[in-house]
Fold this sequence. Notes:
By secondary structure, the chain is an alpha/beta fold. 45% of the residues lie in helices and 20% in strands.
Amino acid sequence: MTVSPEKKGVCDLSIIIVNYNGWPYLRECLESLSREGRNKDWEVLVVDNGSEDGSEELVRRQFPGIRFFSLGKNIGFSRANNRGIKECRGDFILFLNPDTRVRTGSMDKLLDYLQQNPRVGAVGPALIGDKGRIQVSFGRKVHFFREFFQKVFLNIYYAFFLRYYKKQRVVGWLSGACLLTRKTVLERTGGFDPVFFLYFEDIDLCYRITGAGYNLFYLPEAEVFHQGGGITSGRERESRFVYRKSQLYFYKKHNSVLSQTLLRLFLRLHFMLLHIFGKLRGREGSRDYDSFLSLLKREPASAKEGNKDG
């Protein structure tokens, strides 16, 4: 399946998996890739953000053909992917979460579609969660009203609708849990914005791909199982904080002043209610409340800073 570290030149597909203490999920993901990629000109790169759970030993012992890069510390999803991009030999690059398992033929379907449609910049599969539920892995432009509407109404609708209505479609963004693009597109758009530590970096990249004149396609005939939240489980508070930080930066980078203002007002009310309910339930919430409010008081990272090399 893989290209040996000594081989020069290019291969058909490079698969980048950014890992951080995801040992149980990573093993299943790599096993599925090994089955699917047998006798194919693919390479797999695991970029590890300083895991301490034996991930490196797992890869080196059970998957010796996979290229493993240990970064020594957690530098975030965006910067780790950018590190992987620099090492890729493939003409096409797949970003894949470690808490996924690819299904038979799905990678071929994604790759064939990109090869046959040069104006398509990236494609994404249907992400299948527990009990066969279809996850919402694509969308249109993200702003306050649409995001609110999608989380309150559309996610429920899509959970039912997408199970029965399997049709290719042009979309505004695709989930980075499984995202296939071209190396030339990444060279043109600059890869991931390293200001995003985690969350929203995939939507930001998709925006820049469409801004460069390419289309994005959702291909439901390709299916990938996605645990969803598996890697961040046990770190819910930290994940919520990082999510909101990335959300504020994304809104500053891509949205109007009105959307930014509405988001900040919503988050202030949201944090306050969480604090009150936590107190009523006997939980200590003042530290969390102060930390979250600090996000609203300080200026988000600048879009200019986001252009720095990751």
